[in-house]
Specification:
0% strand; mainly alpha; single chain; 6 helices
Length: 151
């Protein structure tokens, strides 16, 4: 029974068969005498990644700025879209950020409740509240549905 429960909880690198195959192949074909084989080239859970998700909510905005020498990251790299984040973690082998509990419990992380100015992306879109998937009309709906689907 324990194995069947584990089979539904896939690591971030195994969200789809292509992505899983990439990481398994990298591990299995690693050729280095000095660096041990690895699946991911970065950690999947760090303070910086947590702050990435929490950037709209104080005191995390301040912590984020302190971590980055009082500067915002490139605007395109600021968390601003659930659909884009999902797309990136499906195809980008360098994106292995795990979701944080707040994305299942705290709708405020998806709204710019402190009216912080994040500038515009390279394609001219203003970064403000997080863009939600079409199935979630509000941040409260996103949290409720995300929590229910991932029980």
């Amino acid at each position: 029974m324990f194995e069947s429960i584990l089979s539904i909880f896939q690591p971030i690198g195994a969200l789809n068969p292509t992505r899983k195959a990439f990481f398994v192949e990298r591990y299995n074909n690693w050729e280095s005498d000095t660096i041990p084989a690895f699946h991911y080239g970065t950690h999947y859970s760090t303070a910086a990644f947590a702050l990435h998700w929490l950037i709209r909510l104080e005191p995390f905005t301040t912590y984020y700025l302190n971590l980055h020498e009082e500067k915002l990251n490139a605007t395109n790299r600021i968390f601003h879209s659930i659909p884009l984040s999902w797309q990136n973690c499906q195809r980008d082998s360098s994106d292995v950020q795990e979701l944080i509990p707040e994305l299942f419990s705290l709708p405020e992380v998806l709204t710019n409740c402190n009216d912080y100015t994040f500038r515009r992306t390279e394609d001219g879109n203003e970064v403000d509240d997080v863009i939600l998937p079409k199935w979630a009309p509000t941040s409260e709906d996103f949290i409720r549905i995300n929590r229910a689907v991932n029980r």
